[in-house]
Amino acid sequence: MGDPDQSDLGGEPRLRFRDDEPHEEPAVTLDAFFGQTNATAVRLESDEDARALIPHIGQLALVEVAFPTFRDGRGYSAARILREAGYTGELRAQGDVLVDQIPLMRRCGFDAFAPQADIDRKALDRALGRQPYASQKAADAAVPVWRRRHG
Amino acid sequence: MYRYDEYDQAAVDARVEEFRDQVNRRISGAMSEDQFKPLRLMNGLYLQLHAYMLRVAVPYGTLDGRQMHMLAHIARKYDKGYGHFTTRQNIQYNWIKLDQAADILAELATVEMHAIQTSGNCIRNISSDQFAGAAADEVEDPRPWAELLRQWSTFHPEFSYLPRKFKIAVIGADQDRAAMRLHDIGLQLYRNDAGEVGFRLFAGGGMGRTPMIAPVIRDWLPKQDLLSYVEACLRVYNRHGRRDNIYKARIKILVHEIGAAEYARQVEEEWAHVKTLGLDPPAAEFERIAAFFAPPAYEAGVPDTVDLSDPDFRLWVDQNVSAHKQPGYAVVTISLKPREGIPGDASADQIDVMADLAERYAHNELRVTHAQNIVLPHTPKRDLYAIWQALDAAGLATPNLDLISDIIACPGLDYCALANARSIPLAQKIAGRFADLDRQRDLGEIKLKISGGINACGHHHAGHIGILGVDRKGEENYQLLFGGSGAEDASLAKIVGPGFSEDGVVDAIEKATDVYLANRTEGERFLDTYRRVGMAPFKEAIYG
C-alpha cells in the first residue's frame, strides 16, 4: 500500500493510502448527488444509508464518510458495505478520526483520511504495524487466522 | 481447554504493547482523557471511585490451574491481595495503578490471558454454562462455539464502536445456567427433529434500566453459518441502534422498537448478502477448536459412591455437589459467599488453594459462574472428602449454593462510580439474618440478587428476590422485587411497592419468606409459590 501521502490539501491534513492522483472534485451531499447526474464525489453523513450509493458506484471516484465523533461507529459499516458492493474508488474518513481508530478503518476499506486534528505520524505507524494477524475476514486484504491455519 | 497457537499469542502480545503505547501517549498528554477512555475500557480498565479497576477476561468462564495461580499472583503483586469474580464470569481488581496496568496485561499474556474487550462499546467476553462439558443434560459442549466467537469478535474492525456494549452467551443444554436470554445475543445449541444439532438464536435481551427477555430471532441456524449470521445481526444493530441516548442504545431497545419480526427480517436480508462474503471458517477450524474441548481422560472404575458419615461433609455434598455425566465423577461448586464475606471476593491465598485443588484432583480445570462462585467441573467422587477438607481449611466450604445467602451482588457504592447505594453491607446483613443453615435449607432455592445502581450489574431483575439500591433525597433506599428468573423459565422481577431502608428491606425479605412457608405446596420453590399466589399476600404481609 506504500507510504501514505500527508499533503495539505484544502487546509486539512490528509492521509492517503492510494497510488492514484487525489480526486479534486469537492464531495457533494447525498441529496445534491441525487439531484445532479454527473457528480463523481459524494459525502455521506453518519446517519445516511451507504446502500443508496450502490447503484451509482461505477461513476464515483470519491466517497467521504463523516465521523462527527470518533464514538460514532456507523461509518465502519458504511465503508464495508461500499467495498463489499465492489466500490474501488477513494474511501475517505473525515472528521474526528484518531490514531487508534485508523487501523480498524483501514480493515473496513478506508484508504484515505481527513482528520480534523493533526495525527502523530509515528504513533500512527506504530498502530498500523501492531497486529500481525487478523482474527476475522473484513474488507481489506488481510488473511484471517483460520485461513492461515488451514490453507 | 483451548490453548493458544502462535496466532492467538501474537494477538495478545501485540495488544500489550499497543496498550503500553496508549498509556504513554495519555500520560504525555498527546491524548485527552476523552480519547483515551474507550481505549482503556476496551482493555478492561475503569476509573472507579478510589482507583482504577482492571477487569480480566475469563473466556466463557473456563480456566486452568496455571491461569488461576496467575490471578492470585496479580492480586498479591498489584492489588490488595484479593480479587472479585463477576457476573460476567470474569475477575476484577479494584486497586490498580494506571502505570502498572500494561505490566499486568504482560503477565496475563504469559498464561494465555488478557483483558481485551471486557468493557467498552464492543463485543464483550462471551459467557457460557459453567457446567459445560460436565452437565448430564447437555446436548453438546457450547464452549467451542464460544471460543470461535471470541476469536471472531477480537478486535473486530466494524464492531468496536457500537452504540453500546454487546454481550453474547452460548449454552448447550435445556437448563439455562447462564441467563442466556438476558443477553444481547443468546445462542442455544439443540437437536432438531432430524437429529441434527444447531442453534436457536435470541436477540435483544438485557438488564439495565429497561430489562428485556430476548425473543427468538432465528429458530434454526446451522452451525457452519454462525459467524456470518451473528455478523449480520451486529451490522443491523451497528447501523440502526440508537445513538442519541445512552440509555436507549442497547440492541434490546432497537428490537423492541421495530419488533422482533422486523429485526429478524432485516437480519435475514443482511445475511443473504453477508453469507456470500466467505466470513465463515471451514469445518476444519471448528474441528480444530472442538478438539481442545474433548472430555478429560476420565479414570475407569472410579467408585460412584461417597462416604457421607461426616455430617458437615454431607451437608456440603448435598448442597454444593451436582451430578456429572460421567459415573464416578461430580461437579463441585465452591461458594464465594461465606457468612461475613463479600459476594464473589476471594483472597490470593484462596485463589491458590482452588488452583491447587483443580491441578491435584480435578483434571486441572476451573470455571467461574455468573453467580460469582467457582466450579471444579470434573471431580472424582473418591476425592470429594479431601477437597472438602482443604476448602474448609481455607474458608471456602460454605454449603449454601442456590440458598438465600448465595447472593449475587455488584460492588455497589463501596467501589463503583455509577452506583447509587451500597450492596455489599446489605448482602452481609441478609446473610446474617438467615445465618442458620437449617433455616436456609428449609427455604430451599432462593436466588437473591442485589444491584447498587440502575445498570443492574447485580442482576436484580432476574432475582427470585431482587433488590435495587436507589438514591432517595441523598439517602440510600432499596426497592424490593419478586419473581425474576435468569434460568430457562426466564422472567423479569416486579417491584413489590415503596422502597425501604437497609434494615427495612431485610425485615421485608424475612416477612416474604414467612408468606412462602405458609403458602407453599410440596416441592414448590419460593419462585413457584410467588408465581402461583401472586404479589398480593406478600404485599399485605410486608406493608399491611
SSE order and pairing:
The complex is a heterodimer of chains A (151) and B (544).
Chain A: E1 8-9, E2 12-13, E3 15-16, E4 28-29, H1 30-35, E5 41-44, E6 62-67, H2 74-84, E7 90-95, H3 102-107, E8 112-115, H4 121-128, H5 145-150
Parallel strand pairs in A: 4-5, 5-6, 6-7, 7-8
Antiparallel strand pairs in A: 1-2, 3-8
Chain B: H1 6-28, H2 33-41, E1 45-47, E2 52-56, E3 62-63, H3 65-78, E4 82-85, E5 91-96, H4 98-109, E6 127-128, H5 143-153, E7 168-171, E8 185-191, E9 197-203, E10 216-221, H6 226-240, H7 251-258, H8 260-274, H9 283-291, H10 311-320, E11 321-323, E12 329-334, E13 345-347, H11 348-361, E14 366-368, E15 374-380, H12 384-393, E16 408-409, H13 424-433, H14 437-443, E17 448-451, E18 465-472, E19 475-482, E20 494-495, H15 502-519, H16 526-533, H17 536-543
Helix pairs in contact in B: 1-2, 1-4, 3-4, 3-11, 6-8, 7-8, 13-15, 15-16, 15-17
In short:
The complex is a heterodimer of chains A (151) and B (544). In chain A, 25% of the residues lie in helices and 19% in strands.
Describe the structure in your own words.
- The complex is a heterodimer of chains A (151) and B (544).
- Chain A contains 5 helices and 8 strands; from the N terminus they run ββββαββαβαβαα.
- Chain A is α/β, with parallel strands linked by helices.
- The longest helix of chain A has 11 residues.
- Chain A is globular.
- About 5% of the residues of chain A have low confidence.
- Chain B is an alpha+beta fold and 544 residues long.
- Chain B folds into 4 domains: 104 residues, Sulfite Reductase Hemoprotein, domain 2 (Alpha-Beta Complex); 153 residues, Sulfite Reductase Hemoprotein, domain 1 (2-Layer Sandwich); 83 residues, Alpha-Beta Plaits (2-Layer Sandwich); 136 residues, 2-Layer Sandwich (Sulfite Reductase Hemoprotein, domain 1), CATH 3.30.413.
- Chain B has a 5-stranded antiparallel β-sheet with strand order 1-2-5-4-13.
- In chain B, helix 5 links the parallel strand 6 and strand 7.
- In chain B, helix 3 packs antiparallel against helix 4, helix 6 crosses helix 8 and helix 15 crosses helix 16.
- The mean pLDDT of chain B is 96.
- The chains are: A alpha/beta (151), B alpha+beta (544).
